Amino acid sequence: MYGELVLVALIIIGLVGRSSIITTAACILLVIKLTHLDRYLPTIERRGIELGLLFLTLAVLVPFASGRIQPKDMIDAFGGWVGWVALAGGAIGAYLNSKGLETLKMDPQLIVGIVVGSIAGVVLLRGIPVGPLMAAGITAMILKIVQLFIGK
């Protein structure tokens, strides 16, 4: 019963915050719970990030597949400093994601704060919840910085 109440609360928060992603995700999970398909929740939890990243990557690669980005465009992208900054940003983002995954494996209860923080970011800051790995990676980075200052 607790899970259903949390999902209904998330639906309301998503509606109030005009976040169709949170609303839709909570609705789908509520339907799964109410139709007694709970046995699929561990699979969704285990494979959901992979599936979400797959679709996100597909969306990002569509301009290549559709021919909107040509080889010349790819070469031109690294003709200026902005392209090199984008390359560094991609590499740093991938690194942070790996650190986020390590952090979540070592300290899984952090997911609660990450999920609540992501919801707050969507509702209050009009952010987009693209995944807990980056949030966990940023969390890992902040934790390292704090540990440097307090010496732990």
TrEMBL record:
Intracellular or extracellular location(s): Cell membrane
Membrane spanning residue stretches: 6-31, 51-69, 81-98, 110-128, 134-151
Tagged with keyword Transcription: no
Presence of keyword Plastid: no
Lineage: superkingdom: Bacteria
Membrane topology note: Multi-pass membrane protein
Keywords: Cell membrane, Membrane, Transmembrane, Transmembrane helix
GO cellular component, one term: plasma membrane
HAMAP family, sorted: UPF0756
Similarity-based family: Belongs to the UPF0756 family.
Name of the protein in question: UPF0756 membrane protein FPZ45_02350
Organism this protein belongs to: Cohnella terricola
Lineage: Bacteria, Bacillati, Bacillota, Bacilli, Bacillales
